[in-house]
Every structure is written in structure tokens, then in C-alpha cells.
Specification:
The chain has three helices and two strands. It is mainly α. β1 and β2 form a beta hairpin.
Length: 84
């Protein structure tokens, strides 16, 4: 069995690269969940309603848990443990 080296030749490199990107997005969800889940509202007519919608504590917790799962799956793909 070959050693587990990131981006080694022999497997599909596309899966390894996707794993790195997927783990990076998951890490962002774990480290900065508020920034990853907040979104802005505004009216099309340019009226007085503009603002930022803040996520609840439950949504932040779920975002962190999902981000942790994303990091594990992405690391598995990047290291060649998961996938083809």
C-alpha cells in the first residue's frame, strides 16, 4: 500500500483538490460561523428598509457542527482515505 501523501499521483487528483477546497469551506464555517450565515436585506425600490439579519445561536451551533463534518470529509478526500 502506498503512503498517504496529499495530491499523490495515482488517484484522481480532482478528488484531492476538491477535498482541500471542501475542507477549507468547512474550516471557515467552524471559525467564522456568524460571517458565513449572515445576509443582508434591502428593498428593490430603495426604501428605508435595509439591514443585516443576524443568525440565532442554534443556527451558529449547527453551522459549526456541519463545518466540522465538512473538514473531516474534505481531509479524507485530500489525503486519499475516501474516494476512488
Amino acid at each position: 500500500m502506498a503512503p498517504l501523501v496529499p495530491l499523490q499521483i495515482g488517484g484522481l487528483v480532482l478528488f484531492r483538490l476538491f477535498g482541500i477546497v471542501f475542507a477549507g469551506l468547512g474550516l471557515l464555517n467552524v471559525v467564522k460561523p456568524r460571517e458565513m450565515t449572515a445576509y443582508a436585506i434591502r428593498r428593490r425600490a430603495g426604501g428605508p428598509i435595509e439591514g443585516q439579519i443576524e443568525p440565532t445561536a442554534t443556527r451558529l451551533l449547527v453551522t459549526r457542527v456541519v463545518g466540522g463534518v465538512m473538514v473531516l470529509l474534505g481531509a479524507g478526500l485530500a489525503l486519499g482515505v475516501l474516494g476512488p
